[in-house]
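Two proteins follow. First one:
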Amino acid sequence: MQTNLYKGLELFFLFILLPVSFLLSYPIVFKIIFTVIGFVYILLLLRRMGLLRLRFPNKQYWRPFWKELMIKLAIIVIVTGLYVFFVAPDKLFSVLIKRPELWVMILFIYTFLSVWPQEIIYRTFFYERYEELIKNKWLFVFINAVLFSLAHLFLKSFLVQLLTFVGGLLFAYTYQKTKSTTLVSVEHAIYGNWLFTVGMGEMLAFPGVD
């Protein structure tokens, strides 16, 4: 049986040391190798814990989930829409208008090849593996959000760090309430796809229309 000390060291290496190391100057091939090793290690643990199966949440969570999501989404739409309008008005809905085929492709790729793996690692695995290490659930939500933001350090963007921290808080809160990878992935996909749609894609390292 793995001890809390082992899990603590594991958390440090996977979620702190590895992402921070991407800021260091060393061959990218080694960064890829270390990332793949970490990802495979997590997948093996998830498989051992029986958490790789697609499971739908209990019906009791769907209605309150959508109600809360619509409120949060409305706030995000207003804030980000105003931000793009005032900071980069030429980007407002630019991809949707100028390159709708790219817009559709990014929505699909982001939803299935980015959102799902992120939520499997940072919510499903992280909660099931480390929740017992920290008894204060709100502190755990905060730590999860900080580490989720840390995972995006390689993009070297303060805006990305801020948005992923706020997103991490929302996603961790949702997962803590529902324990559903499906629901938190739906939420993550909707927010992320909206950011790309409204015109923040290039700010967040997505392809642009130029």
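Second one, unrelated to the first:
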Amino acid sequence: MRKFSAIIAAIVAFAFAACGSASAKTEQGAAKQTNDTTMTEPSFNPADTSSVKVEVNTTLGSFTILLYGDTPRHRDNFVKHVKEGYYDGTLFHRVINQFMIQAGDPDSKNAAPGQRLGAGGPDYTLEAEIIFPKHFHKRGALAAARQGDQVNPQKRSSGSQFYVVTGRKMIPTQIDALASQLKNQQLQSTFNGLAAEHMADIRKMQAEGDSAGLKKLQEELIAQTEATVAAHPIEITDEMKEAYSTVGGAPHLDGAYTVFGEVLEGMDVIDKIEKAETDGSDRPKEDIRILSMKLL
């Protein structure tokens, strides 16, 4: 049972969290969006598998992104925002050196200096389109921000907020450890989803002080988690090894967030944004703004 110690701890933690505040924080270090609500997402065309190019003009220069055709929900949602000028005037409100730059909060358009940002967006979230390991968090990857697993076990994406990965390179020993790290994340994520499905039972047993029932459910969830992960193991591809060792990225987010595009041109601009001086909330002290976007 040693290899499942982390899962067991997570089950206990989740059970305690179930009767705590609903406003749980997202995990530290992950790209986050803090206040989306799950409502009807916009329509999309799953039959259309074409990719789309978008030019992003900022106060520090321009870069071009490719929206993948095999993540049509996120592609069409982003295109809709581009056509409507939704992103025009918004800030890169969260910037972390050697990790990522984040934007897409409409509340940032007229934000006062020092104002905390990251809770804005449309009144819907997007169903996850996680295609891993085909799409992963290499340098230049475009992905959707979201709330953390504890309050969002389905990994639904923000309706507007996105981030571009900068990350860092990995040495051979780190690459070797990546498979184990990703498997642990898969175990945790699988458990979170199963536990969420049994939330009503967990709360009822907690209220009744039914420790035997909680223990039995814990054992059942561990068994289900083990079977699910064994049937769908994560594999580290040669492409991932090559990318993470030569250009870098943020592999700790792999399989947990929807990667729906990548930067084609202008990574030098991304690097300028990444190096901006920030405050305690990771917001650049001098505003870096998206001036406009256009389809190419």
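SUMMARY FIELD: The longest strand covers residues 52-58. The radius of gyration is 20 Å.
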